[in-house]
Write a structure and sequence with these properties.
GO biological process, one term: amino acid biosynthetic process
Main location: cytoplasm
Number of domains: 2
Bound molecules: shikimate-3-phosphate, phosphoenolpyruvate
Helix content: 25-40%
Strand content: 15-25%
CATH class of the largest domain: Alpha Beta
Family: Belongs to the EPSP synthase family.
CATH topology of the largest domain: UDP-n-acetylglucosamine1-carboxyvinyl-transferase, Chain
EC number: 2.5.1.19
Enzyme class: transferase
Number of helices: 12
Number of strands: 22
Length: 409
């Protein structure tokens, strides 16, 4: 479905949006619940990625198709590998079959797992024969995806002797590892993260515990972008959020101050307000701890006529699409001057945005969601708009609440 977006009205002040639960917290919590049935979960994500995780966890044998969900692919690999009696082929979309899984497979094999590649070595689909994993020490490269590490940590308390993980090289997406550890702690598992070593104690049973999933901060980023592109005084309330988030993307609160957006926290919601016009012609940020907001920030900068240099983006080429390449192509269509290398993107301040451009989304929810706020500046078309359901199925409905006009072409 193609959506033509425009914004004929003045920005509406004081709108409130309820955003679905974090997909990262959801998929971790679901795995913990499968291992420890005493775990109860509130505010689950209604995303496709959450749904495929739930369905996958119920499977005992046969094929499990997780579509585009990276977390489900990685977390379920570790889960099935450690479940005696379960035998599955874990597969995903065409793109998922291009996203590497070798580091995790090798780590699990080191622990005693039986996993075979069905097609190409190092990539899904994979055939997993669940086994009791009897080793308790493993080492793996940490600079490709933190999801491999989280996958091992999540199954760690169910192993007989717990697990000691040695992380080799520079650790990427660190907040996601800390989120995993925090959720383990919340269900009563002892964890320790010192230097390059993580230790997780074994746990037979957990007390009755409710994990309350905070709403998704990566999804909140699109509203930060909208407020940044609106006039001073524009205000949006988002729920349910908290000041001490487990999600690294909550760094938005700090970063968007550079775009003149202030955040305040009340009981369970945040209020984001445009308080000033941004002063800096160009911003520089290292996003190795928050890779999922790179597209949002790049588009905000374009919309504000600002330049940016975003670094630490070495993981972007192996996400839902090669996000550095996709950003460069789509921003260039809109009139921006863009340069990329293996781990960064640089955009020169751009005065005029080309109108009527159709943005290709490359099966990547964040391409659709990140470019949509530009409708505040110009009319644009989003191709394959329903791709947003990967993490935020209600996105278009929620933009409608804010006064965006969406016409199906
Ligand atoms: O663990 C997680 O929930 C995630 C980790 C990050 O991936 P990488 O560790 O591969 O950067 C992030 O991009 C992804 O959206 C979710
Ligand atoms: C990278 C992402 O997801 P995943 O790796 O879980 O597919 C994302 O949602 O931006």
């Amino acid at each position: 479905m193609k959506l033509q977006l425009s914004y004929p009205k003045k920005p509406l002040i004081n709108k409130a949006i309820k955003i679905t639960g974090s997909k990262s917290e959801t998929n971790r919590s679901l795995l913990l619940q499968a291992l420890f049935p005493n775990v109860n979960i509130e505010n689950l994500s209604n995303s496709d990625d959450g749904a495929v995780m739930q369905k996958g966890l119920k499977t005992v044998s046969g094929e499990v198709d997780i579509h585009h969900a990276g977390t489900a692919m990685r977390f379920l690999t570790a889960y099935f590998a450690s479940q005696e009696g379960k035998k599955v082929v874990l597969t995903g979309s065409k793109r998922m079959q291009e996203r590497p899984i070798k580091v995790l497979v090798e780590a699990l094999r080191e622990l005693g797992a039986e996993i075979d590649y069905v097609k190409e070595r190092g990539y899904p689909p994979i055939k997993i024969t669940g086994k009791k994993l009897d080793k308790s020490k493993v080492s793996l490269p940490a600079n490709i995806s933190s999801q491999y590490i989280s996958a091992l940590l999540l199954i760690a308390p169910s192993l007989e002797n717990g697990l000691e993980v040695e992380l080799v090289g520079k650790i990427t997406s660190v907040p996601y590892i800390k989120m995993t550890l925090a959720l383990l702690e919340q269900i009563g598992v002892n964890t320790q993260f010192e230097g390059n070593t993580i230790k997780i104690d074994t746990k037979n049973q957990v007390e009755k515990t409710t994990l309350v999933v905070e709403s998704d901060w990566s999804s909140a980023s699109y509203f930060y972008s909208i407020v940044a592109l609106c006039e001073v005084g524009t205000e949006i309330k988002l729920s349910s959020y908290k000041e001490n988030s487990l999600q690294g993307d909550s760094v938005l609160e700090e970063i968007y101050r550079d775009f003149g957006v202030e955040t305040s926290f009340s009981a369970n919601e945040i209020t984001i307000v445009k308080t000033a016009h941004p002063q800096l012609p160009t911003i520089t940020y290292d996003l190795s701890n928050a890779p999922d907001i790179a597209q949002t920030m790049a588009v905000t900068c374009l919309g504000l006529g600002m330049g940016c240099h975003l670094t630490g983006l070495h993981t972007l080429p192996i996400k839902e699409t090669d996000r550095l390449a996709a950003l460069k192509t789509e921003l260039t269509k809109l009139g921006a001057k863009v340069a990329t290398d293996a781990e960064s993107i640089t955009i020169k301040p751009t005065k005029a945005i080309t109108s009527g451009v159709a943005i290709d989304t490359y099966h990547d929810h964040r391409m659709a969601m990140a470019f949509a706020p530009l409708a505040l500046r110009t009319t644009l078309v989003i191709n394959d708009a329903m791709v947003v359901s990967k993490s935020y199925p209600d996105y278009w409905k929620d933009l409608g609440i804010l006064g965006f006009v969406e016409e199906e072409l």
